[in-house]
Design goal:
This protein is an all-alpha fold. The protein has a domain at 2-105 and 190-222. It contains 8 helices and no strands. The two termini are 20 Å apart.
């Protein structure tokens, strides 16, 4: 009984921590949506920008963790089995997304290049100010120019491509790497960390499922039924 009580309160504490984390992510998403005009450089994926992603992720984490916390605290079989099913679905979705990214890596690269070209064309036509700000921010931050190089801009190279204050006068001191190459390098450097993070999250989800099922079986054997 003492072990099961320890398991119960461990589940409560862990899910409470995750609930706080989810609420924080949710609040950060709302803050970015209301105070920032930063939009994605990928027009086709504009609905999946950072603010929206944080908003949706925060809601999911908060709801699932609250369900686990309440189910463990009240020893409610219905809530515990719902928590188990949701964690299982989330784990399957994460694994499926990881497999799809690995299988269609080349297609994703081509898609990103095409979308970057589309947003770069919008910049040159000055059709959307938010896209202009995005390109300037990325080029200054990553010290890159265009998609592959400054040649992508043709005759309309923006000031954010300049590697010094004098480049506008002589036109020779642009960043020598394209933003696609820089972005790909950043992703490649963080690939291992991302993989480790996914594995850790999956392990936490498996432990959560094991804990919830253990409590569920204990309540069933106790004959407490659905509360």
């Amino acid at each position: 009984m003492s072990c099961l009580k320890g398991l119960k309160y461990t589940m409560c504490v862990v899910n409470f921590i995750f609930f706080i984390c989810g609420a924080t992510i949710f609040g950060l998403g709302i803050y970015l949506m209301t105070s920032s005009r930063f939009a994605s450089l990928l027009p086709s994926l504009q609905a999946l920008n950072i603010a929206n992603t944080l908003f949706i992720t925060g809601i999911i984490i908060s709801c699932v963790s609250f369900l686990g916390f309440l189910g463990a605290l009240k020893e409610n079989r219905c809530l515990l089995i719902s928590f188990f099913i949701l964690l299982f679905i989330l784990m399957l979705a994460e694994l499926a997304a990881a497999c799809l990214l690995l299988m269609y890596e080349r297609h994703i690269d081509k898609f990103i290049k095409d979308d970057l070209k589309a947003s770069l064309d919008k910049y040159k036509e000055d059709m959307a100010r938010n896209v202009t700000n995005d390109w300037d921010t990325v080029q200054k931050g990553l010290k890159c120019c265009g998609i592959e190089s400054h040649i992508d801009w043709k005759a309309s190279v923006p000031p954010s491509c300049c590697s010094s204050d004098q480049c506008l006068n002589n036109g020779t001191q642009y960043w020598d790497q394209g933003c696609y190459t820089k972005l790909k390098d950043v992703l490649d450097r963080n690939l291992l960390n991302t993989g480790i993070a996914v594995i850790v999250v999956c392990l936490i989800e498996v432990l959560g499922m094991c804990f919830s099922m253990t409590l569920f079986c204990h309540i069933s054997r106790s004959g407490l039924g659905y509360k």
